[in-house]
Amino acid sequence: MKIKIRILILTSILALLTLSGIQAYLISNTYQLKKALITNQVDQALDRLDDEAPAVDSIDTIWRYAFLRLIERYHSGQISKAQLLTAMRQKADSLNPSFIHFYNLELANKDLEYDVQYQQLLRHLSLEQENGSMDTIYNHDPASNWMLFGEKFPKEKGENIGNTTWSYQHDYHIMDPSGKAIPRSASFQISTTDRMHILDKEVVIFKKMSGIFLFSFLIFCFVIGLIFYSIRNFIQQKRLSDIKTDFINNITHELKTPLATLAVATKVLENVEVKKNPDALADIIQTISRQNQRLQKLIDQVLDHSLGSDALLSERVSVDVHPFIATIANDFQVLNPQKKIVTDFSSEKLEISVDRFHFSTALLNVLENAIKYGGKTIKITTRALNGTCCIQILDDGIGIERKHIPFIFDKFYRAEDSNVHNSNGLGLGLYYVDQIIKAHQGSVSLQSQKGVSTTIQIKLPCYENATISGG
Fold first, then answer.
1. What mean pLDDT comes out for the span 116-130?
2. Under a CB-based contact definition with an 8 Å cutoff, are residues 170 and 190 in contact?
């Protein structure tokens, strides 16, 4: 059975891990799809913005015109390559504040759900020389980005949304020393990269996926709860099965002794010599009577203890705790002279309302249980605690292992590790105690240290100004 439980737990863990993996895969895919969808939406909005924003387009036109003038000067040898690049950068920097202003205004009109930053980077610039070769004026340096227009943001946070290559043959004139206009033609190629940065994109995506996360979490919790519930029920069913098997073994053992005695006594009665001896006959009849009473007691015990606390009808009277317990302790001491019963009562008067028969039986069950499991000295103490009467019964018996304590008040449960018991019993004594105390609106608990001692604590409501019905 233990192997089955381990297989069940291992299978459940593997199933849970598989489910977690599937959920993680689906959530990851959903995240990527949401990310791509948002990027596509913003990309489309930015594409339309270039066509629908006259102010932005006019700034771009101004820059292109200035760029062509600079290309003319470089192509004709009036400025160097370094001067060309410096002048291009200065012109772009002077126009960029206006570009950002108008670009953001137009972007706000798009009513996007996200805050977006945009930038245009220069990637390549080359000029065709007279011999047909290309003069590379600028080529993109991965270590640094040359931003023409837009806002600065970290490279790792941006996304490329498009590349633009502009190949153009620019015709212009230069004046020779005589003042004559000489036509010239400059063929060049310029490439730019458009990038965007959606601020707090991960936060936006997670907000959009909050429903999925919640649903996945609930499913995950449900599966864990279902697995836990199934395993717990399986273990409980196993424990109940073991307890029932143990009970059947115990009740069989308990019934065999009186039945065997009755069988022997009946056989003896058949002996003619016994029939002629009145004393022997009387002894046999008494033996049969005792064994019959023992059988009846066993049957009554099973029937009585099958009732729950809600079915125990108590005829309660108010009693003074100390003389009531003292009487029970004295009677128990008489029946067990080899044991030592010690009482340590509270100095204040404690009154409780109980069914005398059931409550005294419960106390006797605790005392008998203490002796049954090796107790030589039993100490009974009482005290008042927050409006309750606290009764503690301590014995120096063999104690109980910690693993048994949570189940010690269960029906038929006995804290042995095998079916061979050194002490008789059906596992109903402490169950009966628990049910009786619950019927009196009280509580019972057990503390034990294996091989040292066991303490059972009973708490019952105290009643003030009650009429005492004798001890």
1. 87
2. no
**Domain stop point among 208, 232, 266:** 208
Alpha carbons within 13 angstroms on the beta-carbon side of residue 333 total: 14
Q: Is there a single domain that holds both residue 78 and residue 195?
A: yes
Q: Are 50 and 122 within 8 A, CB to CB?
A: no
Q: What does the pLDDT look like over 356-405, one tens digit per residue?
A: 878 887 888 888 888 887 888 999 999 988 889 999 999 988 888 888 88
Taking alpha carbons only, the member of 129, 151, 125, 147 closest to residue 138 is: 125
* Contact assessment for residue 433 and residue 445, using Cβ atoms and an 8 Å cutoff: no
Decide if 85 is inside a domain: yes
162 vs 160: CA distance, rounded Å: 6
In a domain? residue 468: no
The whole domain housing 16 covers 2-208
Q: Which amino acid is at 155?
A: K
* String of DSSP letters for 434-458: HHHHHHTT-EEEEEEETTTEEEEEE
* 394-423 mean pLDDT: 71
Tell me which amino acid residue 204 is: V
Q: Which tokens go with 352?
A: 């409780």
Read off the CATH number of the domain in which 233 is found: 1.10.287.130
